[in-house]
Design goal:
Length: 321
């Protein structure tokens, strides 16, 4: 609870301005599946609390945003993302939609190989229904999107490729798309690398090959190729990524192109840092906003570069995988 009080104080201090701004609502859901409370934060546009007796309360599209390894549900909003998104709304570059950031710990947003941590089941069976009832979310796939950074980028692509019937658009920044074989990852786990250790806690030690393949975004995209024709897809990656994820991003671009799936892929200069993520956060928000506004009968938009917004001054800290 202490971290929510500190976060609320930050929002109050940064939210004072001449124009109406949205707010951040942080709380937790007691999960029956995970047997623990799961914290989350929701960014609500300023109109969410506006009341008009002559009209029914408005319902909004929702973007689920998944954080990276070592981060939490507050990271997007505490590191400059909140101000950047509010600025985009004030400039009418994005529409009004909710942004929901759940606590994912080091789960990779999937069920663990040993079955002890069923995050996928929690997210689909408990979290989505809970959020979409509590916060006046507009119904249907057309009003639901998912995105994330790093580990969260992997999670977003996996959810969308596995369940294209649930999401109309997906984005990933520096997604943890790993091309190494399960055998090589298992061998690397003996080196004590914290990244590989995190993978082994979720996928098994040694890596459970069937579990790895069952959650592989590349294989899921191939399996559900026909359904992905109606999914708007965006991803980017720095070409000097600290973990080599640019190779996975390039491989995904090549595969989607070969399979005739329209998508946006942007290989940008940069590393695996908060500075990189915030540089391109604005265009991911614009991508989702345009997808929400697009009639669902239309084909997903083709790649088109967008100018990057100004980075907040507090964007110098390094980000984790």
């Amino acid at each position: 609870m202490r971290r929510f009080r500190r976060f609320a104080a930050i929002i109050i201090l940064t939210g004072s301005s001449a124009f109406a701004q949205g707010r951040i609502d942080c709380s937790s859901l007691d999960s029956q599946i995970l047997k623990r409370p799961v914290h989350y934060c929701v960014q609500l546009p300023s109109s969410f609390d506006t009341k008009d007796p002559a009209k029914p309360p408005a319902r909004y599209p929702v973007l689920y945003y998944l954080h990276g390894l070592g981060d939490n549900e507050q990271t997007l909003f505490k590191t400059g993302g909140w101000t950047l998104i509010e600025d985009l709304r004030q400039q009418h570059k994005i529409g009004e939609f909710l942004i929901v950031a759940p606590e994912g710990r080091a789960s990779f947003y999937i069920n663990s190989a040993d079955g002890k941590d069923r995050y996928n089941d929690f997210f689909l069976r408990e979290f989505l229904p809970y959020i979409e009832k509590k916060y006046r979310v507009a119904p249907g796939r057309a009003n639901r999107a998912i995105g994330g950074t790093s580990m969260g980028g992997y999670g977003a692509l996996r959810f969308a490729f596995a369940h294209p019937e649930l999401f109309s658009s997906v984005s990933a920044q520096s997604g943890a798309l790993i091309l190494e074989s399960p055998r090589n990852i298992s061998a690397a786990a003996r080196s004590g690398s914290p990244v590989v250790r995190a993978l082994s806690q979720v996928f098994g030690n040694p890596i459970d090959v069937a579990h790895w393949q069952g959650n592989n975004p590349f294989l899921l995209a191939k399996k559900n190729r026909a359904a992905l024709q109606k999914l708007a897809i965006y991803f980017n990656c720095g070409q000097n990524d600290d973990y080599g994820f640019e190779m996975g991003a390039a491989a995904l671009d090549k595969q989607l192109t070969a399979e005739g799936l329209k998508h946006e892929y942007h290989p940008y200069p940069g590393d695996h840092s908060l500075n990189y993520f915030l540089t391109h956060l604005g265009e991911t928000m614009e991508f989702h906003s345009q997808a929400f506004a697009r009639p669902q009968s239309e084909v997903p938009p083709s790649a088109a570069p967008r100018p990057s917004p100004t980075i907040p001054k507090n964007a110098s800290a390094a980000s984790k995988f």
